[in-house]
């Protein structure tokens, strides 16, 4: 069916590396509203494909589905472009702060693990060598 304007759910799923079930899930959550054929089959256009890409990007950045829904919904409400950009920047700044905090936590855990590792290696070097249980061949 692909004429570069409309896609079936399986075509869109393949394009974006998703399962059809994932796409239906996003539809159930109200993030997508595909058109339907007379036979009831879903038909996805450019708008739905763009929304799916935004959903995937939002997930990759660690946003919740609620946050993604709000960001996607900004285009559907009477919000001017400057307000949309400001709101998106607000989300981005918050996410950057969260990532910086996580990075500090990971750095601290890594430093702790390296210190413990060094203590273990030092202690291991102080222990007498174990006699080999097996005779040499």
UniProtKB/TrEMBL annotation:
Keywords of this entry: DNA-binding
UniProt key word DNA-binding: yes
DNA-binding recorded as keyword: yes
Pfam families referenced in this protein's UniProt entry, alphabetically: MerR_1
InterPro entries reported in the protein's UniProt record: DNA-bd_dom_put_sf, MerR-type_HTH_dom, MerR_fam
Gene3D superfamilies assigned to the protein according to its UniProt record, in alphabetical order: 1.10.1660.10
SMART domains the UniProt entry points to: HTH_MERR
Protein name: Transcriptional regulator, MerR family
Species of origin: Desulfarculus baarsii (strain ATCC 33931 / DSM 2075 / LMG 7858 / VKM B-1802 / 2st14)
């Amino acid at each position: 069916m692909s004429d570069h304007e409309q896609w079936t759910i399986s075509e869109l799923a393949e394009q974006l590396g998703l399962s059809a079930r994932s796409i239906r899930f996003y539809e159930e959550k109200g993030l997508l509203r595909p058109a339907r054929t007379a036979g009831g089959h879903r038909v996805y256009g450019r708008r739905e494909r763009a929304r799916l890409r935004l959903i995937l990007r939002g997930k990759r950045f660690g946003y919740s589905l609620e946050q993604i829904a709000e960001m996607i919904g900004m285009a559907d409400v009477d919000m001017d472009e400057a307000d949309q950009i400001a709101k998106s920047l607000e989300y981005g700044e918050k996410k950057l702060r969260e990532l910086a905090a996580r990075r500090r936590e990971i750095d601290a855990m890594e430093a702790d693990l390296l210190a413990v590792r060094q203590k273990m290696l030092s202690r291991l070097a102080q222990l007498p060598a174990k006699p080999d249980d097996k005779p040499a061949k």
